[in-house]
Amino acid sequence: MATSDPDANACGSGLFQGWASRPWYLTQALPVRHNNKQGDVIMVLMLCDPAYKSQAGERRVKNPSPKSIRKARRRFMAEAKQGDPEAQCSIAYCLLEGLGGPKNVSSGVKWLRKAVENGCVEAIYDLGVCYVDGEGVGKNRATAIKLYKRAAKMGHLDACFNLGIFHEYGRGVKKSVPLAASFYRKGARLGCSSCKYNLGELYDSGKLGTPKPRLAFKWFMRAAISGDCDAMFVVALYLKQGTGVKKDFPAAALWYRRAAACGDVPAQCNLGLMYLDGIGIRKNAKKARTLFLKAAKRGDIKSQSNLGFCFEFGMGGSKSVRLAKKWYERAAAGGHKEAKAKLAALSKLKKRKVR
Fold first, then answer.
1. In a 3-state reduction of DSSP, which class is residue 174?
2. Under a CB-based contact definition with an 8 Å cutoff, are residues 15 and 8 in contact?
3. What b/e readout covers 121-133, taking b as 16+ CB neighbours within 10 angstroms?
4. Domains and CATH numbers, the chain
5. pLDDT tens profile 209-224
6. The whole model's pTM is what?
7. Does residue 100 sit in helix, strand or coil?
8. CB 115 within 8 A of CB 123
9. Is 260 left (phi over 0), alpha (psi -120 to 50) or beta?
């Protein structure tokens, strides 16, 4: 597959964003805990009280009080001492993160081990990540892999994904793309959208032999249907280019729209171009300009150049040479060659008017 869409925008405002490789976070093993503290707190409350969500609704869940977190921690500890494996895993989580009380990594690992002995799949996975990171234990990737394999057999999605990553890149194990694919397939069958995406990338890149765009499209589509925003973008690109599937501009616009709604910047740029040129969608320069602005504010140089084009020629709104220059300058500073050329052309035009 080409790394960028070969079709230039008819209005001359830039090229469609291309897809060069999978996002970096789909090449890294997943952590035991995510950095979203709000999500962590909600998870603790949900574990504490299974009826919490249905009783309180989403509004209350969004702002749990420190008192609720402390109460959850006390309840986890009480049930953990009684031998409940899920509670043992939950109190370990609180201790490792410092939720509802002081952080105590060694005590957290101790409770993880107890939960592992009692067969808690989440604890098996979490202890594996502790061995990868050296958190509360000495770093030992071989032990981590054993724990991941045990968790994967029990149907843990993240364990399947991590094992796929380790085997694909040879991290702690002998590199084996076919074995990585087998773990991705298992995770995909269990519903892991990241595993589906990575399978698509393996078929697209030819890591499993010759590139197989039809199979790649199938897995990207499955990941997109599962809600993966990056996959939505790639599906749209495949449909736009006719890679592994018949060209379908309206369908491409649909998937770009879904990816853009997720906040995918390249999708916002490409959808803007489709609106600007009326490719697969009704022409609407105003919507194109709005999409370019969203992506431009997030640092996308192609969108910045496209937005400069809109201001220069009054596409989708008022004309403004000053704002056109502003956005061309930002794009040019980021290395966009076409923006540099347009900026130079604007400067020459201004000099002629002065004379």
1. coil
2. yes
3. bbbbbbbbbbbbe
4. 20-154 (1.25.40.10), 158-227 (1.25.40.10)
5. 999 999 999 999 999 9
6. 0.80
7. coil
8. yes
9. alpha
